[in-house]
Amino acid sequence: MGKASETQSYAWIKEKLKRFGWVMRNPSRNEKGEVYTQHECSQHDEIKKSLEGGVPEFVLKISARDFCIVEAKSHPKEIKQALKEAQDYATLINKTSKQIAAPIAIGVAGSDDDGYEVQTTYFDTAALKWRRVAIEGKALHRLPKKPECERIISQKSAELARPEFTTREIVELSSLINRRLHKAKVTKEKRAPTIAVLLSALSRHPDLKLQGDANIFIEDINTRAKKIFDISNKLHLWNQIQLVAPSEDNSAYAAALDDVIRYLHEADIVSSTPDADVLGQFFENFLRYGNTSKDIGIVLTPRHVCWLAAEALNISHTDLLYDPALGTGGFLIAAYSRVKAKSTPTDAVNFAKNRIFGCEQNGPVATLAFINMFFRGDGKHNLRNASCFGARLVGASLSSKTARFKEGDEFRKSEHVTVTRVLM
């Protein structure tokens, strides 16, 4: 690869490895080190002997025995070549050494201008072939974290469970995106809805990227994201958050969106564990930024309080829940997750479809709640974008298994309160 592209690629890989928790020190010189760069791996006698003079871009130390090989190229189209070279180096180690192994090989290809492609593979010793590392069937498009490499090796499988995100990782990602959108002059109140649109678009087209005309790129994002709202009968919410460029010159705005899409890809936040409201916390970091939550008059309930409420009230699939001040949906998601964990799949689906209700007056915030629930497997729940004081939630009888909103706050004789739990 060219010298400039090589420098960009190395810097990019180092930055990502550091962000994902790898200790960026030479293992031969520091006992806590986990990353050999280029010729440093020759300081490990067994690696040097096995590679027969070959020098990979990076060698990651997973354990005293297990290593991961990383090779890089200068253009995304060269990803197959980068991966093959990493696998060839790993195969040399696996065939010639009885002391160490390289069960994981990674190819990285790209530049700052063209973006980066990442493919991670694990050598299946039973089938004698390399397999793409995936999270619940979807290929991993970022560099793996060390604990993920450890799980791959211990379970002898390229299939990973959904990742768990720490509060620190969520804050770091939202801060990175906040800075990028601020630079592109996206106002603070539009940043969380912008992320919701991008996540919706990515769910329809994971390979979305800027490839020329800025206006076409923005229109493409809107078109793909709108489909999520359309199939869920939520177009009234879509109209409040669709992307609108802040100026006539859309190039800087489109470039910022392209960068944010890359950040979201690398973090793989949508694949986060279903047992934690990661997206809700993520959105709320944007609402907290610059006191936006105070400006729009909402109170952000800490997630542990939401989970505590669901546990304390012993929420089950037979309850009918109502949150009259929904926000990003933290209480309903905590309740829904509890029901999913303790009920049959059929009961959980019925609970999400017929027994969860919420009101949120602020349109963009209501949209965040919808997106949050959509990515958890339910996009047709009963969320109302209106004040809770302008409607009543009633059932046809005391034994009704669901309810519906009706305009006005005065109950009629034929109407019954079927709500069993109110969370707010």
Describe the structure.
This protein is an alpha/beta fold. Helices cover 44% and strands 16% of the residues. The chain has helices spanning 3-19, 45-51, 79-96, 146-155, 167-183, 188-204, 214-231, 235-241, 251-267, 278-288, 292-295, 303-312, 330-342, 345-354, 363-374, and strands spanning 35-37, 58-61, 66-73, 101-111, 115-124, 129-132, 134-135, 138-139, 159-160, 321-323, 356-359, 382-384, 391-394, 404-407, 421-422. The strands form 4 sheets. Strands 1-2-3-4-5-6 form a 6-stranded mixed sheet, sandwiched between helices. Strands 12-11-10-15 form a 4-stranded parallel sheet. Strands 8-7-9 form a 3-stranded mixed sheet, covered by helices on one side. The longest helix has 18 residues, at 79-96. It is elongated. The N and C termini lie far apart (57 Å).
β-sheet strand percentage: 15-25%
- Write the H/E string, N to C: HEHEEHEEEEEHEHHHHHHHHEHHEHEEEE
**What form results from the Cα inertia axes?**
elongated
Summed over residues and divided by their number, the pLDDT gives a mean of: 86
The unreliable regions are: none
What's the short version?
The chain is α/β, with parallel strands linked by helices and 424 residues long. The protein is built from 15 helices and 15 strands.
List its salient traits.
four-stranded parallel β-sheet; 424 residues; alpha/beta; six-stranded mixed β-sheet
